[in-house]
Every structure is written in structure tokens, then in C-alpha cells.
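Posted in: Protein Modeling Q&A

I'm a second-year student putting together a small comparison for a lab meeting, and my supervisor asked me to include a predicted structure for DNA primase. I've never done this before, so apologies if this is the wrong subforum. The sequence is pasted below exactly as I got it from our records. If anyone can share the C-alpha cell output, I'd also love a short note on what stands out.
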Amino acid sequence: MIPQSFITDLLNRVDIVDVVGRYVQLKKGGANYMGLCPFHSEKSPSFTVSPTKQFYHCFGCGAHGTSIGFLIEYSGMGFVDAVKDLAQNVGMVVPEADDKIPPLQRAAQQAQSQSMTEALSQACDYYRAQLKTAPNAITYLKNRGLTGEVAARFGMGYAPSGWDNLRSVFPDYEMLALVESGLVIDKVDEDGGNKKRYDRFRERIMFPIRNTKGQVIGFGGRVLDNGEPKYLNSPETPLFQKGLELYGLFEARQPIRDAGYVLVTEGYMDVVALAQLGFPQAVATLGTACTSTHVQKLLRQTDNVIFSFDGDKAGRRAARRALEACLPQVSDNKTIQFLFLPEKHDPDSFVREFGADAFAQEINDAMPLSQFLLREVTGEHDLSTPEGRAATQYDAKPLLQAMTPSSLRLQIVRGLASLTESSPAEIESLFELSKPVSVAKKAPPRQGRPEPVGLELQIVRILVAHPALSLTLDEEALQAFDHFGQESSDALRYLVGTAQALGEYGNFAALSEQLKEGGGHYDRIIAEIASEPESDPEADRVWLGSAVRQIKKDALKQELNQLFSKGLTPDQVSARYREIMAQQQVLEREDAANMSPR
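Accepted answer (user: helix_wrangler)
Welcome! Here is the predicted structure, written out as C-alpha cells:
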């Protein structure tokens, strides 16, 4: 876990205008910068970036967040990767609270990673240059209908014949990074004596695999003829894990947003060919089954994922594995579909034979996940017999157990119940599904505190906008919040504590990032503050002090009204009365001393 103090320091050092400006063309507009929103299609800019708040906000689609949030949403990075990316740009090293690695060892690991990244980048440049002088490779790509433009977009190259061509690229051909990055292979004699080093990729079209930052982390190489293996991938390395990466995702990020969906295919050539044919929103798994991490990455980019599989048995097996990977990630606001092409066709061949419009129609008619799941579990079972219906339920049980409780799961349960002559409640009970949703219950009592209003709401808004002002609140001020009721008081104490933990340099961006971890309760207020002009911290400080004093006065007045009904002795009443009056006078004097128009 990355310490919050580091996150705060990082957000104070990075400039969100620079971060967003790497991906969005921004123009100065008053105090803020404006541009076309990268998260939805628009013709007039409604996307603003505030250098003072260090926050972005779109008035069109409502997207908002910090530099960290922008990288997560735009690039599909995880939180840790986004933090590391930003930290690297400002020369910071990300600490880890539970990290036991000694500093020297950590520095060595970082140096190793940097060395591998540089080696892969140099190799990519070499392969790209070789493609320009390889007639056989150029002819192959032209025969596949690819232009030089699309080859350049994906950084495609060619590894020529020969055992050690990379020796001309790396003067120190024996450097460790070449083996660690998978570019070369060390072959050792059986007796452990002589070692021979040679290039891993030879006589292959080269497809560089990029991470979400655009860095080359590995390669896929395709033979020009019918040699084996047809595709050769880089091995797993500290930079490259096949179960985590998707080919073409870096290039497809904006097309995915423009199209409103991502198309997941089975190979490199599908991705490149589809981009050539008008479907640049395609990505591919890297010679491995689709994983839950793949699905998670895709759902960060879009709400609609469509898997495309060949119509043969291998394609259907791959589709089943993809279905299983999707189930833990399914939610009611996401759509996952499955497209099955006719046998002997992949997306490339289908488009070339039937045209782009026909393929677009196939995409439009793709099978919803719910339908595919029910088709899979019914299989060859005879639903007219008790045994067939029981076998169907047996096959469905692990799939439904993998899903989180949701409306979609309920719909699938109802469909399965209808097919197997059962009730939804019986299915959920039999499958021991967590949090059954089909059983009719009385509406649960409303939980959580009500939305803040009035004075409480204004205090919350000021503390979120200017977290450093929380440092002006002492325990006496926090006790005054009890006037709002227990739930509201607890929430305000949490907000103040979170803000105070950021210290005197805590800002709106840092607090917003922290509050996200506590759920979405503050999302609406954060979005409102992000969309408004920057408020004056000094005026807010004066008003906050006045508001706390007003709460204290209201609490004293309420106590005074109830003083004679508390069952106190006359002496106790008299003593407490004098205390209340003295406290009220102090508050009045403080009000007079701090009078300032808001």
C-alpha cells in the first residue's frame, strides 16, 4: 500500500495541465485550460483543467478527477501504475509500506527495468528499419492488404535471417538485459561449459507489444511461410506478463472511445488488419486465454466489450474461457457480448469476403453474455428429462457463483429457472448464491446518513475545497458538530480527520483522491466544486470560524432552554447558567473581532 503522505506530496509536485496536455490539446481560457473531452465525443470543448485545483472536470459527461484519476481512466492503468508513472516524471521513487526490499536492491531492480526498456526500444527501432529493406516481408504484408501507414502506426518491423543480427545494434551483445528482456537466448552445452548466444527472433514479421504508457515491453513474431511456430512471443519477463497485457490496447484507446466499444480478437494480424479495414477499436490477447485482469482493463476503457471468436471448436473453447474470465467483472452498467464468425473465417478474412458493413452487422448482432452462458450450460442436455435439467443446473452452478449479486445475475437465474422448471428462489438456495436477490423482502431501512444540507453542507464543501482549513478545528469545534446529530457528526469528524492527516499542504486534489477510497459519498460535492470557480481560502476560513461559533451558540441556546427541566439542583442550575452566559459572551466577542463580509 502506498502511503497517503506520498500521494499528497506527489499531487503537489505534478502539474495536471502537463499530465493531461500529453493526451489532450488544451488552450488557455481564463483561469483554466479547455479542450475536447477525451472521454466522450464532442465538437465544442467542455473539458476543463484547473491548475489551481489540480483537477479536471467535463461539463458534458461529468468526468472529473486528479492527475492520478486521469491516467487511470484515460490509459487504463491501475492505481499503483498511475502513481509510479507520475512519480517517475518528477523524479520521485514510490515507497511501499510493506516493502522489505533494501534500498540498494530496489535501486538495482529499477536499473534493470530501465535497461530492459531501453534494449526493447532499440530493438524495435532496428526491426522497423529492417522492414523497409526486406522485399519478402513487404510483399507478405501487401498481400495481406496492409499499407505502410498502418504498419507504421503499430510500429511493425522485420527480424531478418541470421543468428546474431542484434550484435550490430548492441555493441555489448553479452549484456544481461538482452537475455532478461527475451531478445536473445543463451544456450549452454550439456556439460555446462560453452555458452552460445543468439537472437530469439529470425525471419519474422515483428509486432511490438506496448504497455499503457506506449513503452515496448515485448514482441510477437510471425513467420512469412508455413513454418512453426506460426507465432513466437517474447517470454515472460519483469516487464511483460501475457495474462496482464493486450496487444493493440495502446493504439486503440481513442478509437475505443469513439466507437463506444472494444472488439477483442484472437491474434496480432486480426488487430492490424481490422485497423486497416476501418475497425481500429480492436485488441487481442497474447497467445493465451483471456484473463479476468484482461477484462478489468477493458472495462476501464469502455462499458461495452465484444469478444470475436472463430466459429471452429477452438474458437468456442476460447469463448468459454473468456466467459469464465468475465463473470467476476460483470455489473449491471456494463455490457459483454460474444461474436461467432462462420467456420474457416477470422475477422480479417470475413471483412475481405463480405465487406465492412457485413462485419459491422455481425458486431451489432453479437450474443449477450447472458444468452451465451445459458447456451453453454444447456449444451447437449435433454431438458425434457429431470436428469437433463439437473445436469444443466450442475453446469450452471459454478458460473453463477462466480458472479456478484446483481440484476443481471437475477435475470440469468430466472432464465435458468424457466429452462429447468424451477423457481429463481430455488436456484439461488440450491446454488448457495451470496446475497440472494430474487426472494421478496420488505425494503430495508434506509442506511447511512442523509445528504448534508444547509450549514452542514456548506461546512463540508469548504473542508473538501480547502482541506488545510481543517487544521483550524479543535476538539471543541468537533464536539459542536454533535448539534447536527450523531450520524452527521461522525461523518464530519471523519472528513476533518482525513483532511487534517494531509497536513498544511493538503489540497483539493489530494483529499478528493483520498475520499474515493471511502466510497462515492462525496462524488457529487467533488464534481460541483470542480466545476465552479476557485473560492477564496481566506474568506472560507473566516466563514468556517463563524459557522462553528454559530453552531456552538445554537447548542448553548438549546441547552439553556432545557436547563430547568434537567432535574438539577438550584445551585447547579445557577452555576451552569452563568457558564453558558459567559461562553455566549466569548463567542459574541469572537464574532465581532472576526466580522468580515462573505
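A couple of things worth pointing out for your meeting: Residues 343 and 581 are 89 Å apart (CA to CA). The chain has 25 helices and 16 strands.
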